[in-house]
Amino acid sequence: MAAAAKDLAASYIDSEREKLKDLSLALWNNPEVGFEEHKAHQTVTDFFEERGFTVQREYRLPTAFRAEFTNGAGPNICIICEYDALPEIGHACGHNLICEAGVAASIAVKAALAANLITGKVTVLGTPAEEGGGGKIDLINHGAFNDVDAAMMVHPYAFDRMYQVYLAIQELTVTYRGKSAHAAAAPWDGRNALDAAVACYNNMSLLRQQMKPTCRIHAIISKGGVKPNIIPDETKLEIYIRAPNQTELILLQQRVEHCIVGAGKATGCETNFVYEPKGYASVNHNRTMGGLYQKYAEEQGINFIEPLEKLPGGSTDMGNVSQVVPSIHPTFYIGIDAQIHTVAFRDHAAGDEAQTYTIKAAKSMAFSTIDLLSQPQLMAAVKEEFTRSMQVGPVE
Hints:
Elements: H1 2-15, H2 17-29, H3 38-50, E1 54-57, E2 65-71, E3 76-81, H4 95-114, E4 120-126, H5 135-141, E5 150-152, E6 155-157, E7 168-177, H6 193-207, E8 216-223, E9 234-243, H7 246-267, E10 270-275, H8 287-299, H9 318-321, E11 327-328, E12 331-333, H10 343-348, H11 352-374, H12 376-392
Parallel strand pairs: 3-4, 3-5, 5-11, 6-12
Antiparallel strand pairs: 1-2, 2-4, 7-9, 7-10, 8-9
Helix pairs in contact: 1-4, 1-11, 2-4, 4-11, 6-7, 8-11
């Protein structure tokens, strides 16, 4: 039955290829930033309703959705769609392809469920604002994953990688307040808040020498003063701190805080810093699920690159999902070596070559989902690995 389900899933995706491409291009041609994805929300939910899913629009958030299809008893597998774009450069992270792949996999699994070839439930969650905003974190806090047994999504990239390192990230804003004065006539009357910001930045630059190569700090001075002849009385820095896991992140945060406070004391400025409340966790890759996806991708000619030295990439709120349910987040090559968040990658994400690879990724997710729904022992192994990883840490 599982083999027949996969055959049906593959043929169904193939039959919908042109409409899936149209869906992807509709998103690409109308890029919307986080929490403002109203056209994308309408387009994707219409697509699911037309194909027999039970759809909850504006699910917990104005631009989130939940689409479901159930046939009998069994696990509930969640396939995740992202569709937010970047400011100014649109879908340079390829979220139109993430959404297309998620939609394609979901309708394929639904076809197998509707044909009574497998039993269980497929849930699709449309999650806004991955590019800053943490829509998945909001959905976790609203209980969206409480009944989910496993979750998956894919991400276009410059290469195929099953276990890309996604770092935990914590953002914070630092404010220094000093005292303004005329920079030439009476500088001694001032307390230079820009000196504090520069000292903080330099402190963190010195800290990098003692950081692990898997950690990252990056910062900008977002407010530096008004005019050169006025000693700045207020400055701001935006800082991102990243580490491979929450334990290392907290330790690095403490060291950064010393850099921040020390700069304020050295310059006589008042210091205040505020953490972004929705930090992104590192991704806990479920190797049992990953083995399924990799097997089906390789059967379609995909070659995975897993370097010996696993240097980190970016961060994602899928990491938070992976801390509450077993999850995978593989990357897939779309035919160009350009990195994400570039104009070249954005333009390629609208092309025909990217479609070929997106469909392969979608089929790999669909086949993996069918296995999880049809093999209870496999689902048990997934959950056992997840429980173990949360107790002793994930497999490196």
